[in-house]
Amino acid sequence: MTKVSFLGNFGTQNLGNECTLQAILGNLRKHLPDARVECICPDPEDAGARYGIATRQISSRSSHGPQARTWPGHNHAVIRLLRRIVIRVPRELLEWMRAFRALKGTTMLIIPGSGVLGNFGIDVFGLHYEMMKWSLLAKVRGSKVLFVSVGGGRLRHPVSRWLIKSALALADYRSYRDTFSKQYLDSIGFDTSRDFVYPDLAFSLPGLESAEPDHTGSGRVIGVGLMDYYGTEYSPEHAERLYHDYLESVTPFVTWLLEHDYTVRLLIGDVVYDKRVRQDVITRVSQRAVYEPGRLISEPVGSVDQLLSQLATTDMVVATRFHNVLLALALNKPVVSISYDEKNDSLMTELGLTEYCQSIRDIDVDKLVKQFIKLEENAAAIKSHIKHKTAEFRAALDAQYQAIFGER
Known about the structure:
- The chain is an alpha/beta fold.
- It contains 13 helices and 13 strands.
- Helix 4 runs parallel beside helix 5 and helix 7 packs across helix 8 (275-288).
- The protein starts with a strand and ends with a helix.
């Protein structure tokens, strides 16, 4: 019997990551309904409850249990070195043995979608190291290794670049979700000449269809997707400043929408981290604008299906998180992207919507308003174009699933 193991940053309540796993799971079951499935991830309890599949923890370092007690003098170089030799090295050897046993019987180890080849929110010895470790052990076990529609980004640390190139070199199949990811890997010395570019897996979510909102009498509903953005700097002070700059750009835009008789639905993409920014926007908007109850909608969300239901009620979307933008497009919603990464720009370019982007680093609120007005004026033509492109994306992904899950 075929055993498929998925590896990635799943179960952490980042809905962008979850929707990629949900998409490939649905399509795996269509092509290989009898396959045994396992998910190797940081939070196996959450992933198991979400998908009803076997799960295991990617590493004991990803455990959400109590933090280890800090030793006195833990910053001393000699003590740090001794601790690595006495504790960390033996512990890591045990981790490799555990992973080797876990991969017994695995036919395919698949790293599906998400931005696993970039370093946004990923530590050097976090997921990049784990991908290399599990890929190597899978090959020793005789399993195929597949990177499927994965995304990349600029890698500052040379160790990250080495780990990613080493993991990719072990793969039997590689595809990237955009041309930028493939070209970037080429630029750092990895040969991608035999690799493919396919759309993001989220475009293949089963049952995903364009959705027309049903809000008779409530006026046009605009989805505003938020993100707890702190940049990629190491200084806490600088990160906090970036966050407040973002707030000071989003808040006046939401206020403008309310003052012009739109209903605003606040959207998030990470259940854990985006709570702060959503509440901060609500607080600041309430201090600046007077609006009727129900005109500023903020509802809890805990799953991809709930996020899709919320997006379905909107007429247009202005969003920051990549998969808020992508899922809105998949539902045939005209979108303005406040882009925090090349992946946002690449997606919008692929859809022919480059003029409806701007960088999160330098948001111009007046320009954002003008982009929104132009988007609304051209909404009918834009929706027709989006519908055509997303149909192409789904067809391309169907072909990819046939290639990797077809006749075995």
